[in-house]
Amino acid sequence: MLRDKVCIRGRRALRDREAERLIRRAAHAALAALALPFGALVEVTLVDDDEIREANARFRAKDRPTDVLSFPMLHFYRGAYDGNLASERDPESGFVPLGDMLINVERAREQGEELGHGFARECAYLTVHSVLHLAGYDHEDEGEEKRAMRAREEEILRRLGLPRV
Q1: pLDDT in tens, 88-101
Q2: Domains and CATH numbers, the chain
């Protein structure tokens, strides 16, 4: 099986080595925890408040900045896919594209400080959170779906050595 692939892009000013290392590590940990039966491709773009505000307004009709946005390519439910994965696999790379995420690096730094757990935990959390969205986890309801997603996030972050403080 192919190892999962995480591609990171964004303007040079936002291409922080620390953030990129954390994002790769967290994305690979989340994908490993999901134990998907294929090599997954995740595209990450590092953005600032203005860029994510524009995307949030365009795709979610919420004209304000946020910390992370997820754009799944396929319809999963808690890591399970009903369709034919063979038809989804990129014939050149062999990877199955899970989707794209936008991570607001500015907001991750601010929130890490505000919440008292630092940039590493916040950046990893946003990445894991987004990977889970790409794999069909959701938190729109305040019930079982949200509890399942939060439990998965915390399990993965503990494995990364970044538990909730």
Answers
A1: 888 888 899 999 99
A2: 5-159 (3.40.390.30)
